Protein 1
Amino acid sequence: MFEKGHDLAAAFVRKQIGRRELIQRAGQLGLGVAATSFLVAQAMGQAMAADFDWKKYSGTKLKLLLNKHPYVDAMVADLENFKMLTGMDVSYDVFPEDVYFDKVTAALSSGSSEYDAFMTGAYMTWTYGPAGWIEDLNAYIKDPAKTNPNYDWEDVLPGLRASTAWNGVPGGELGSADAKQWCIPWGYELNNLSYNQKIFDKVGVEPPKNLEDMVGVAAKLTKDAGGPYGVGVRGSRSWASIHPGFLSGYSNYGQRDFTVTDGKLKAAMNTAESKAYHKLWVQMIQESGPKNWSTYTWYQVGTDLGAGASAMIFDADILGYFMNGGDNKEKGNIHYAPFAANPAATAPTPNVWIWSLAMSSFSAQKDAAWYFMQWASSVEHDLFGARKMDFVNPVRASVWKDEEFRGRIDKSYPGYLNQHDASAPGAKIYFTAQPLFFDLTTQWAETLQKMVAKEVPIDEGLDQLAASVDKQLEDAGLGG
């Protein structure tokens, strides 16, 4: 029975039969879902090993530094397949996000060789790369002796590949021909609408089509929903309050954080168009946001949606995804929609956060670490995570076409596929790469807080912000 099951799973992996036939024939053999899934995973591993020496570093021990996240849960659940495939052992330390990046910085700045690879955001590599703490992965991706011929780097969504590559020149275009690939995209999030269909039906409103519409819809929801406020967005004094919904809408209006002329950066937050955008954003929060908005992070925005305290959020699509499951009160009521803030825009242009994998320059076993990184970002692992775990959003175009994955999402997350498919072509990092990113973007968030609190007029606040940013750029030799 199991021999025939092996043959059946191998045929499925070779795409000679579809999933429906696989399940039907496995049932005829007396194989349950768990046994069939195991055989498919095993067949995938055997297929991966066919054209590449995965056992080259058998016996090597790798150690990873990881952030607590569903992507890590998916990796851990599949890790035995990597160990069987390579003969390597893998250990890891996992920390919650509120301390995770401090752990990474401490390990890298000290030159520690304890960790071979780690999770990172692309923004962080703008510090790590020029400091010499992480490896340029182009040397591995382009070396056929080190990379599985079926790895298919081009299958990774192009906006994500470009967004994780930078030449190290302040203001340099992400993904330029001379860019270094500082990390490998692993899973990502783009920013759109997640909303409570039950509350929308009660009030009798449709998902907003643009930012002006969102201001009005959110106000009506706040007034008529009987308790929930209209819209949740982040507001804490942190760069992380600027990069999700705020910058996604800002970029949709064609606005930039900086202009770059002859290699010099100049603040662009105080254009007339930027001021008009800020006025709408501030009005929306004042009229329809949570009372303690200035404390809101990812966690508060998501928790309120899942608890029914807010009617919608303009934030990470995967945040809305997680709030539609688990033991959340509003599980089953959350729907999703693409969002282009600018009425004149033809499609959304969401800024992205990309959880990525980077290699420590201090690792004593870089080639072996690369084996892990390419496995963890492979089509095979992406498929496992997308089909069996909460590995959203996968970074590979082929996985987004997978019928099993799409069927699972479409069944339980209404509108999720549509919001992603409509937005993915325009999804990338819209910030200008430069070494003062965290300080200057946090100052932007602080200015936004002051405007919402009516401590400073919007036009005046943005002029003050731009002047301060330009002074800091000049002092650092980046402006002038």
Protein 2
Amino acid sequence: MANPRFRRGPRKKYPTPFEALGAQLGRVRAARGYTQPQLATAAVISLSTLESIEQGRRPLTLELAQQFDELLDTGGTLEVGVENLPDLAAAIPVWALAFMDAERTAITISSFENQVLPGLLQTEAYMRALYDYRVPVQSPEETTGQIAARLERQEILQRHVPPIVSFVLSEATVRDRFGGSEVYREQLSHLRACAGVPGITIQILPLGLAGHAGLSGPFVLLETPDHEHLAYVETQRGSQLIHDPDEVSILAAKYAMLRSQALNPEETKGLLEQLLGER
């Protein structure tokens, strides 16, 4: 897998919607007499997170906007601002933006999935097959935009210094044949190739176990460049980026147990090769 140098584009002349909303938050915070450390403590978030939001490098989520509105007595101004943000080319739901931002610069990523393969490992054809089953049905233009956004996310694995990434995948995710036999085989081949890339570890949690630590569903653990540990969980119509160290620690313990219950990386490669008919 190629590793072209990861570069950010030049700063735009005009502020992005996130920069404008972040500047508004900073102005209101200062007017209410809060320093950044004081507001971060009151909101139970890290100082680096608040700094990133005010600088427009991290989106202000609806949940945080509502919390800041209450703390700063803004009458719902920030909530309205978030609700009226551009749809980011209709590609990424607003509730997932904070996770995408954290993922983009993470130095470690650990992901457990039990329904579909993680977006970072999906082929374009597999993505399209998943969107074919989306309810309600969406337009081809929406699907194309969302696939482009997901493919762009995968560029983090090709950074000059990529993150250390670990995946624990339920065996069901590598046996379901979304898109048919051709798409399935291409996806399996891609998984096998990824399993051989330095810095990427893939382990399959086999079917038929008497029990395992992932019964409550999928989740992702992230470590930021500032060594802040975050967790992300997603539901049918929303998500939560978790900052609370106690909650993150619980999910980290679950992930450690899942890794011990899954096939080791070499056994996983063997299973993928078996499914591909190479053994």
Protein 3
Amino acid sequence: MAGVVVLDMTDSALAVTLLTFWRRAAQLALGGFAGFIGDRLGRRTTLILSQLVIFAACLSLLLLFQNGKLSAWQITAAAFIIGAAWTVDAPARAALVPDLLGNRLTPDAMLLEALTHSILLGAGAYLAGWLLDYYGTAAGINALIALTGLNIVLLVWLGRLQLPQTTPVAEGGVWNSIAGGIAYLRGNPGLLTVVAVSALINVLVFPALSLMPVFARDVFDRGAIGLGMLNGSFSLGSFVGLFLTQRLRRRLSFQAIFAAGSLLQCVAWVLFALAPFFHLAMLLQFLAGVGQAGFYTMRNVILLSSSSNEMRGRAMSTVSLSQGIGLPGELVTGSLAQTVNPRFAVSVQGVIAAFATIAVFLKAKSRQPANP
């Protein structure tokens, strides 16, 4: 939604990608501290505070809009604040799952969480496009405020549940916590591979999502409704991909599904950027969503299931950190889209990402001990 509003204000593809740039800047700045914050404040308290920050940011945007003072830089500032809140929120939310259900049910819980996320994301994409096209910016911001308020109510209710303390809190200060997390990753090649691939995808592939308003309006001439259809197709693909992931995990390892999902995303985005017409682009967005399901779900499952209870929060904070590392990718993508064209930016970066991802997986495989 914010991308459509900023594009209409500025008519600049670079300005649109700067929204995600500053969100990633927040992730890069706070990603290394997220696990420590969640451990120290308590995971449920961290979730409530982060949602309150998001609620306040959205309310500020609404007040500025109603007074005729809303500008692109203010939306960008809000993107940074919301990105900071989500950076702290996401690791705490994921790390709370084993506390609620135990390690045995964690993979099923993560699949269910991803399924719910894809349903709501798809519905939200269509709703956002419809609201912006027919009712304008204020309606979209009001919807965000209402949903964030509902999140806060649910989290306060969750805070009343009594949970056993299953996760020890690491001793020492924040820098010891960060150093311990880095050392832990370096000593676990499987986790290190997941984090490395996640960083590559975030640097080279995910910036394409920032350009969806540009593709919808300037490449395919479809406007806000077209943006909702493209994003909705991606979410529908994620929905279907989760069912496929559920079936495949009975036959394939978590690592194999993660690798397949990562590569499918890269290939689908390259083909999407080169698609000559809108409905083919929607199909390729669907396939990218299928790949996203395997990548996103198995990344979290591997990090949670392969980490000790003490290191779980810090392992999940590497997800936010790897997303923040995508910050230069946003600048490169926006600059290429502005100076050359969006198709070139997305297709070239997708090709580079595919080959780099294959190289990381081959390197990790070569380090595995041979079977006796």
